[in-house]
Specification:
This protein is an alpha+beta fold. 15% of the residues lie in helices and 34% in strands. Pfam families: B3 (PF02362).
Length: 307
């Protein structure tokens, strides 16, 4: 005779989630699991990663289920550099704690060393927290959550109108189309790239002067922070070539950039500004190609800029 799932010990229970859509802001617990194993009064929980660290995460009831959400969940996502396509397994203790195992798109368990080095205190807010509401278009989303996301979408529209930057870039002459001249202002070193060929979706040449000034020539990798706050690790490759009968080195960003482009729907014709926000960390700002294949004209105003 089969046993009623609700009569099983919650300590034996687990569920998995494949990360899709707007997972960096909230994640729904499977409704059947919520119904059978989670007490209705539970408003907060603790997520424990294989690193041994704990994250306090709020739970929110909505019409279509129970969600991990708010700053605690966003910190958990960012500290573990979770990406679209990652696979998470949650083991529930029956009270308020979940042990979480994380696997990347290679089906191998993720390296959580980065989480060991980060502080998990509530005061350690997300860098550029306001940008966490920025959404990536055309991803798979739960249609029942659209009403909940209205505020986020409105904030995203305002943010895109201001060209998505904590530095508040301005659009000259009030023209917000791609045919206008967009001034990107930053106190950090920047360079920009307009994607003209398919190879630019997989490989980026970093200007030599900037690479030397920022100490990137000796680095093996760099972290890319996209508009959602998700971090992508991209490999750096020094390529030796001949130029005017002289041997020169150039620095390319390769493996990892293609995945970032795919997840953020970056296409040929788009312009991307790479902002060096800290050592070996680049924040990207995406300017979409406009109607009629017009490319946005982006003017950088920064201490160390390269076009």
């Amino acid at each position: 005779m089969g046993r009623n799932p609700s009569m099983l010990s919650p300590k034996q229970q687990s569920f998995f989630k494949v990360l899709l859509g707007d997972f960096s802001n909230h994640l729904r617990i499977p409704p059947k699991f919520t119904k059978n194993y989670i007490r209705p009064s539970l408003g907060k929980c603790v997520l424990r990663s294989p690193s041994g660290k704990h994250w306090d995460v709020e739970l929110e009831k909505r019409e279509n289920g129970l969600f991990f959400h708010n700053d605690g969940w966003q910190r958990f996502v960012k500290d573990h550099r979770l990406q679209v396509g990652d696979f998470l397994v949650f083991h529930y203790d029956g009270e308020s704690k979940f042990k979480v195992k994380m696997y990347d798109r290679t089906c191998c368990e993720k390296d959580v060393e980065v989480a060991k080095k980060r502080s998990c205190s509530p005061t350690n807010s997300l860098a550029n927290e306001g940008n966490q509401l920025a959404l990536v278009k055309d991803e798979i989303v739960d249609l029942k959550t659209l009403n909940y996301n209205k505020d986020a979408e409105n904030a995203d529209k305002r943010r895109r109108k201001n060209v998505m930057s904590g530095k508040q870039p301005r659009i000259e002459d009030g023209d917000e189309t791609s045919t206008g001249s967009i001034m990107f202002k930053s106190a950090n070193s920047c360079f920009k790239l307009t994607l003209k060929g398919r190879c630019s979706l997989y490989r980026v040449l970093i200007p030599k002067e900037l690479a030397v000034a920022e100490g990137l020539m000796s680095k093996k990798a760099v972290d890319i922070e996209d508009p959602t706050g998700t971090m992508w690790t991209a490999k750096l490759v020094v390529i030796r070539h001949k130029q005017n009968n002289k041997t020169c080195d150039r620095l390319d960003m390769s493996t990892g950039w293609g995945e970032c482009c795919k997840a953020n729907k970056i296409s040929l014709g788009d312009t991307v500004v790479f902002e060096l926000v800290k050592q070996s960390v680049m924040r990207i700002h995406i300017f979409r190609e406009g109607p009629g294949n017009d490319r946005p004209s982006v003017v950088l105003d920064a201490p160390n800029i390269r076009n």
